[in-house]
Amino acid sequence: MSSFVEIYRKLGNREEVLAKLGRGEIIGEMSLIDNQLRIASARVSEGGQVSIIDQSSFIGRLNKLGESDQVLRRIIDVLVNRLRGEGGTQV
C-alpha cells in the first residue's frame, strides 16, 4: 500500500476523515496565505514523507509575486477569502 496523508477533524469524541491525499498533494495552503487557523488536522501514514514550507518563506514568495503581478496576487487573496466564506457581497 502506498503512503498517504489523511485530513481529518475532531467532532466531539470522534474523528471525521475529510480526505486521503496522495503523493504531490498540497495541504495547509490557505493558512499560509491568510494566517488563519486551520479547520482540520493531518497525519501521514507509515512510510510517508512530507516537505514543509515555512510561512516566512512562503510570504516572501507572495511578496515577490505582488511586486511583479499585483493582479495575480490580489486574485489569490480573493480566492482564499471566498473559500473561507468571508467573500461577502460588495457593491
Count of domains: 1
- Major beta-sheet overview: 3 strands, antiparallel
What is the terminal separation in angstroms?
A: 52 Å
Number of E-type strands: 3
Judging from the principal axes of the Cα atoms, what is the shape? globular
| Content-based structural category | alpha+beta
Strand order of the largest sheet: 2-1-3
> What share of residues is helical?
25-40%
Number of helices: 3
Sequence of secondary-structure elements? EEHEHH
Regions with little confidence, pLDDT below 50 for 5+ residues: none
- Strand portion, in percent? 15-25%
Mean pLDDT: 86
Rg estimate, integer Å = 16 Å
Descriptive notes:
Strand 1 (5-11) and strand 2 form a beta hairpin. The chain has helices at residues 29-34, 55-68, 70-83, and strands at 5-11, 14-21, 41-44. By secondary structure, it is α+β, with helices and mostly antiparallel strands. It has one domain (5-83).
Task: Offer a quick outline of the entry.
With 91 residues, this protein is of the alpha+beta class. Helix content is 37%, strand content 21%. It has one domain.
